[in-house]
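Entry for adenosine-5'-diphosphate complex. Fields follow.
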Amino acid sequence: MMLTPSEKFQNQLKEEIIDNRLAVSGFIHMMVGDLIGEGETRTVYDCALSPALVIKHEPNQTMHNVLEWEIYKDLEGNKNKLKKWLAEPVMLSPCGRWLIMEKTSPPPPSFIYPKKMPKALRDFHNENFGLIDGKFVCHDYGSIPLITDPESNKRVKVKWRRYSGEV
Ligand SMILES: Nc1ncnc2c1ncn2[C@@H]1O[C@H](COP(=O)(O)OP(=O)(O)O)[C@@H](O)[C@H]1O
Ligand SMILES: [Mg+2]
C-alpha cells in the first residue's frame, strides 16, 4: 500500500518521538540512583555521577528547583552570609524539572539542633536540613521569602519540628 506524503511524515515523526523518548529515559536511568526522600513537590535520588550529589525531580511547575537555584546564585553575587546555611545547587535543567545539588546526611540522633537560626529559613522542619562535612545546612529552601530582606540573616529562636511532631 502506497503512503501519502502526509502519512509518511506522520510515521517519521512517530519514530522520532519514540527514539527521543528512548534516548531521554536511557539517559535518566544512567544518572538517577536510589530514592533518598520525598517531599510535597519533589522526589530526591542519589546521583550516579558522585556520592556527594543528589538529583531532585520536580514533575509539576511548582518552581522550587528554579527558586533554589536563583536564591543561591543571587546570594553568590552579594555579601549576604545566608549562603553558608544552604546546600549548593550544582546544575539546573532548562525546564527546571531536574536539579543536581550537594548531598547532605541526616544528623545523628545525638545531634543538637541550633537554638537560633537565620530568620529567612523559616521552615524549621528537621527533614529540611542535613550535614555536609559536619556543617549544618538547609536542603529545602525553594519556598523561603524574599532574600533581599536585610533582616533575612537575623538570628531568631527556633522551635524544631518533625512533620509528625517535635524533635
Ligand atoms: N541535598 C539533599 N541531600 C540529601 N537529601 C536531600 C537533599 N534534598 C532533599 N533531600 C531529601 O529529600 C526529601 C525531599 O526533598 P525536599 O527538598 O524537602 O522536597 P520538597 O520541596 O518537595 O519538600 C527531604 O526531606 C530529604 O529527605
Ligand atoms: Mg521538604
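NOTE: The mean pLDDT is 91.
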